[in-house]
């Protein structure tokens, strides 16, 4: 399967940092090779140039960016979705990891 890179995107990059940690822990537990990081919405373009991203998950607070970001990656294999609201609210790293991995397959 190889390493999967999942980028979480939120308003300022702060609210998703705890979720990233929980996702990393869940990946480690399951023996999944995944690189997971968060970035503020304003830095998405820059990160897409620097990173080999497989999927982008948007925090519920920036769901309005979904169409915009989908257009940016339309000519790539990168998949974009909004993080499940309940999983986000509960900071359920395993569930959000699963969502990101499903997207990137």
UniProtKB/TrEMBL annotation:
Set out the biological process GO terms recorded for this chain's protein.
Answer: phosphoenolpyruvate-dependent sugar phosphotransferase system
Do the record's keywords include Transit peptide? no
Entry annotated with the keyword Transport: yes
What range(s) does the PTS EIIB type-3 domain occupy? 3-105
Pfam families in alphabetical order: PTS_IIB
In its UniProt record, a GO molecular function of this protein is:
kinase activity
* Top-level taxon: Bacteria
Chain segments annotated as transmembrane: none
Q: Please give the CDD domains that the UniProt record associates with this protein.
A: PTS_IIB_chitobiose_lichenan (cd05564)
Keywords from the named record: Kinase, Phosphoprotein, Phosphotransferase system, Sugar transport, Transferase, Transport
Modified residue Phosphocysteine is at which positions?
Answer: 10
What is the protein named?
PTS system, lactose cellobiose-specific IIB subunit
């Amino acid at each position: 399967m190889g390493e999967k890179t999942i980028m979480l995107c939120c308003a300022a990059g702060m609210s998703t940092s705890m979720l990233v940690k929980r996702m990393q822990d869940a990946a480690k537990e399951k023996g999944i090779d995944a690189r997971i990081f968060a970035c503020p919405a304003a830095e998405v373009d820059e990160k897409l140039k620097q990173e080999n991203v497989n999927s982008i998950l948007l925090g519920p607070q920036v769901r309005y960016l979904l169409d915009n970001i989908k257009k940016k990656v339309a000519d790539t294999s990168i998949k974009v979705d909004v993080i499940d609201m309940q999983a986000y609210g509960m900071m359920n790293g395993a569930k959000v990891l699963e969502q990101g991995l499903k997207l990137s397959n």
